[in-house]
Amino acid sequence: MSPTLDRRRFLSLLGCSAAAFPLMTPMSFAALPSDNRLVVVILRGAMDGLDALQPYGDPDLAGLRPDFDVGPAAGAIDLTGFHAMHPSLAPLRPLWQAGHLGFVQAVSTPYRDKRSHFDGQDILEAGTAGEVPPLTNRDGWLNRLLPLLPGATGRTAFAVGRDEMLILRGNAAHSSWAPDARLDLAPATADLLLHAYHDDPLFRENAEAALGFAGSSAEDEGRKTDALFAFAAAQLRQDARIAALSLGGWDSHRGQPRQIARGLDALAGGLLRLRADLGADWDRTMVIAMTEFGRTAFQNGTMGTDHGTGGTMILGGGALRGGQVWGDWPGLAESQLLDRRDVMPTRDVRAHAAWALHGLFGVERAALETTVFPDLDMGPSPGLLA
């Protein structure tokens, strides 16, 4: 493809990238008549679950990622003797020890094959069974949950940020607030720009210098995330009982070690801020951090990973029966990988979200498997709640 066509393609995709990887972090709230609280964090860009939760006990991991530092010997925090969490999550070790942190391995939405961020995020937030929701009349699984909660009144939904979140879109009314008007170039958009001009050495060199491969600094990213979690905590201490927010920048096609460390640093700081600000309400709170899909089991030629399938959920909160890793491990031998490239999903990510809603708010299983998450089989309870 010629540079001209590449540039035209980039300009056409830039708008899509801005929509799929929001420049600002959106957040939503719902007010419910319950003392239990739920925080859903969408990790946009496909977090690499094999890096966040490293199955270093699998003998095939090192061969798939020879240039990545994995396991306790490389500074990761040992959890089970088979799993270790990324060093950037080290501040969360006390939460793990207290049973307030856990992970779910080898999970995915029903979405397969095409591995599109746009479709993957839509399906994750819509909670559907694999079909991409239509552009019109889209609604999200948290919005479909609200009518099932008797007495839900007040601020039914509160969105924060430039972009609406599909997860709370629907018939339930909501307000919005933008905490930051800065127009930083999203990391995924910067990556797309550099890819489009890969064969134009002069532009690529100037673009790399201008972008600095970063967008905003890690310190800026941490401050933004801290502020968002602090704002969420303030609402949850009042009448809000459900908060949904998103964190971008997880699309690590190149330079993954630096990029994922930055994202996990910010996430860890946000979770600790949430716990500190919630005080005693932390004990009635569950956090679900989920992403649209995982990444390839093997590293690519630019010290990154590409779009995959099976991924990892990060769970937190005082209402969690944590200190454990849920889910069946499928293995990383070539014959055990999906399409010989991805972690094989062993359970629907929606099932764990559904069991959380059942335990926190008492929603009946039949309604969860049809109304909230259409065509879901929740399967046996994983025992997420304390």
TrEMBL record:
It holds the Pfam family DUF1501. Residues 1-30 form the signal peptide. Keywords: Signal. It comes from the Bacteria. The keyword Signal applies. This is DUF1501 domain-containing protein.
